[in-house]
Predict the 3D structure of the following.
Amino acid sequence: MKTDEIRTASVCWSCRAASAGEHFCPACGKIQPLPYGTDYFTFFSLPRKLRVDPAELERRFHKLSWQLHPDHFVRASERERELSLERSSQLNDAYRTLRDSISRVEYLLAQAGLRKQGQQKQQAPPELLEEVFELNESLDELRVARKAGSSNGELADLRKRLETEQESFQQKLAEVDAELEDVFGEWDAALDAGANDALRSKLMARMNELLNRRSYIRNLVASVRQELAEA
């Protein structure tokens, strides 16, 4: 869905002039409520792309933050003050989401009904089952050795093996991030080319799969890191 497609026609609540989802009425300048269906990309007048220029996003954020800040509406009507507070809160939520690439793609997929923000499948990817099994064995051995009061030398050997396995999974995490970045590029190119729904759905499914893989590996690495810290 393109940005312009969700900017539905509406009228200003104050002067009744026609508008198209702008932050302020083009006729009287009054702050406006968000049209139904407006997403975070539209909030910043950005296309629904996944490669976002951080500097440009920050520039738009600061500009809107200044324009929508409640301090500018202290002497305005109650309706304008309420809208200012509402829009400022929405602005902060939108900025926090779009400035991070992972939360950005999670949001895009959530908008399409494919994912809840923060969703993660706790299931090992089939191609990693053997390595995950070995890692869990190493974790169990370290826990048992620690409880049994094993020698420092034995604990050090177990820690070293676990650290090596952790590094391997950390590398896999970096590979997933690189693959995600590639698919982001494919998604943006598809939008520019006016790709059909079938291609967009295929790319979204691929991104969702990669996010699930990423979540699993990331949680696994975090668990190992915690275990090593306690050993």
